[in-house]
Amino acid sequence: MQQEPSLKEPVEFGKFQLVRRIGAGGMGEVFLARDESGQVPRACVVKKVLPHLSQNRAFVGRFVDESKVVVRLRHPQVARVYAMGEVNGEYFLAMEYVQGKTVSRFARRLRERKQVMPFGLVLLIGERMCQGLAYAHKAQDEGGQPLHLVHRDLSPANVCVSYRGEVKIIDFGAAQSTLKEEQTAPRVVIGNLTYMAPEQAKKQIVDCRADVYSVGVCLWELLAWHALPQRGDPIERWRKAANPSWEPPSRHRPGVPPEVDLAILKALRKDPGERYPDAATLGAELARLRAKYAPDANEKELAALLSHAFNEEKLTEEGLLARLLGGSPITEVETDKKTMVVPPTALAFEHRALHAPVDFVPDDDEVTDPTGTPTPARRPGLEAVNPTRVAFAIPFAGLTDPAVERSIVDEIEAVVSAEEEYHTAPYDTPGHKRWLLLCVMVFLLASGVGFAGIWLWELFANRW
After folding, report:
1. Angle, nearest 10°, between helix axes 119-137 and 208-224?
2. How high is the mean pLDDT of the chain?
3. Backbone φ and ψ of 332, nearest 5°
4. Active site residue 278
5. Helix H segments across 138-207?
């Protein structure tokens, strides 16, 4: 057995030094690590796979398949996977350390502060997401043949913003590609139902337009500043994912230009043939809209907003990384949730999923409000539909299993109950502020008129 890393003595693990245990996901332990194989040391995140999963033939097969795909991806808008392999019988992943926060955590912090993400920055985030996806969708194998890569689990928890204003897609661990020899079981539906394309929810073959749809959902949520429900009855949520119907974002956030409404609704068309044909086309449209309506929105502004929202965490993280890269010992353990250091890649390659009967597909019923709180469904024979978490399509635990440390999940995914989301959102949108200001002005005007009337009455009463 290898020595587990302590806070005082880094442990050699292949070409990496495991410096500090960050926590545990469902598929394994997560470590802050240092990679000294290059000319300059770099920080990274290493995830060691749990022994019982390493002994699972299907898991190992998919793990090997995955390594053929994700290590090829090298783009500024895609978080790198440096290596996937085996050291002394232990499987591992080594990933880029992205110093920043997931979009879901970013939005949650702004809501807690009663702030709204500026309209132009939302377009910028969407534009950069599309650039990363366009690259991945065109990725090729060593022979120059297209991989036909599709992310399949794009959500605000799988996109992050760095403190330098970079936007990166974090996780292609649920991706579909032609290099994968092991296939997902037909009873497993991988992905977050809230952001899932209808054809994926119906277990159909998907292409890059499924990712276009998911980008549309992410942007709808940020533009409308209306938190979408993440919990509820799985059957009802599945049905809504398969049969969506969307309102324009401006219905919830006045001031969103009609052109932007149209762009988002086109990305959210139920029929893939009616959406943008690919991420590059959607990205170009978002760039045009940003240049027209918010030309000053840029990475510098995005970085400033994130850094201000997470100032304490940023300072803590900078100090930690400075010691890590400088070779100094890391002796303290952060226990304060406000300053805990959890890199966005800590939960990479772990996904939500549903286990359901092989032949079950949601009914083709029109849903008029996919943004509303899901209501319980009573459907006999479907008790076997259960949410779980998977890695490489292999279930490792239930959503409430203690093997998944809740501190990591909360920090990465920022998942709260539907009741809490709807109690707190939307916060102080521009339309709400205008109405509040108008009400205050009317109240002051009415009060002024009333006091003036009383003063005049008393004045004339005294004179007569």
Report:
1. 170
2. 82
3. -95, 155
4. no
5. 198-201
SS3 357: coil
Lowest mean pLDDT among 20-34, 213-227, 355-369: 355-369
3-state helix, strand, coil in the chain (%, to 5): 40, 15, 40
Residue 24: predicted pLDDT: 84
Dump the DSSP string for 418-434. Answer: HHHHHHH-S-S-HHHHH
Judge contact between 232 and 373, C-beta under 8 A. Answer: yes
100-424: CATH class: mainly alpha
Q: What mean pLDDT is predicted for residues 268-291?
A: 98
Rounded-to-integer distance, Cα 171 and Cα 388, Å: 18
- Local confidence band at 340 (pLDDT 50, 70, 90 cut-offs): low
pTM of the predicted structure, to 2 decimals: 0.85
pLDDT value at residue 378: 46
Longest CA pairwise span in the chain (Å): 104
| 3-class secondary-structure state, position 296 | coil
- Over its C-alpha atoms, the chain yields an Rg (Å, rounded) of 25
CB-facing half-sphere around the CA of 23: CA atoms within 13 A: 24
| Given 35, 65, 153, 261, the catalytic residue | 153
CB neighbours of 443 closer than 8 A, spacing ≥ 6?
none
Q: What residues are paired with 161 via a beta bridge?
A: 101, 167
> Residues 320, 48, 162, 406: is their CA dihedral positive or negative?
negative
Q: What is the DSSP string of 1-44?
A: -PPPP-SSS-EEETTEEEEEEEEE-SSEEEEEEEE-SSSS-EEE
Structure-token match 């978080």, residue found: 79
Spatial CA neighbour of 83 closest among 46, 40, 43: 46
Q: How confident is the model at residue 181 (pLDDT cuts 50, 70, 90)?
A: very low
Contacts of 166 (CB under 8 A, 6+ apart): 76, 77, 98, 100, 128, 299
The two tokens of residue 370 are 């996919």
Any idea which residue has 């090997």 for tokens?
64
